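Dear support,

I submitted the protein below through the web form. The confirmation email said the job was done, but the results page showed an empty box. After a refresh the structure appeared. I'm attaching both so you can tell me whether what I see now is the final result or a partial one.
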Amino acid sequence: MAQGPVLLTAADCQRLLSHLDVVAQIEQALAWDAAGTIHWPAPRSLNIAPDKWGNDYHVKMCVLESVPVGGIRVVSHPLDESSPVNTRLILLVDPTTAWPLALIDESWSYVQRTVGSIAMAARKLANDDASTLAIVGAGRLARTAAEYYSRLFNLKEIRVASRTASKREQVVAEMAAKLGLPVRSAASIEDAVRGADLVLTATSATEALLEESWIAPGAVVACVGTAEPGRELLEKADLFVVDNRDQLKKELIAEYGEGSPDWIDATVLEIVTGQHPGRTGRDQRAVLVTEGIASQDIALAWLAYQRALAEGTGLELPIGAAAPALRQP
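What the results page shows now:
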């Protein structure tokens, strides 16, 4: 393969990266962050939300100094962030030359990182014998999350709740066939959630989906949106964990008011590195809200790029007059 910058498609990333790779790179990015070897901009995210057509735009970036590689992540999507109609691109840059290395379509790896980071954090917070998973939602995030949870937990049952019965039944059948586990269609969110050890809400909801009284002692509730858990559950949870305080501060204040960032007990990084003990009692209920950290997306993009270089794949892009000698993996 030529030494110029290359384009990697979502299909390339899917072929080059496994589920184990995704979890390992998420944990590696957390380790780099804990070591202070990630260089972040201020502010961490540039946003337009929404424009006159209802679309959101985000630009996030960082330099992974331990690699080293720089990454610029560009995202645009309609109000429903899970929509397949979106832009998700990562530009990798060699910081030793300022030369572009690759342009990567992360529309596959974004989903993997989103649910992989949630499942990994839930594993750190859950009781060892957690075995019942309730999923609220029947979209791509929900389907992919079931795969990650089934790999990280010894699941005995999955329950699925969603607004559309026909879609729910289809997803239940797909999950059961793919995972080889008992998967049940729940008549309501309450029916799915009550008594579950693990709860995941993966929707585009802008209002609370859960009631505090539904959540069993010892359960770990993971949400991809700040509105989904609701005020009562966040206030009464024994542990409220987020991926980044600064990133979620604005959303929490908009949803719950000025004092809501003070409800946060720990970040995923603090749990993983032992800076916070995490669960200290079997009956403690934990709520996890994640927005996603760009360093994890860039770490995944870098690994896909390394694998592509090693096997000589990727579409060369005609960018720049002449490429300097680029680092090999």
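Response: this is the final, complete result; the empty box was a page-load delay. The chain has two domains: 6-110+294-316, 123-289.
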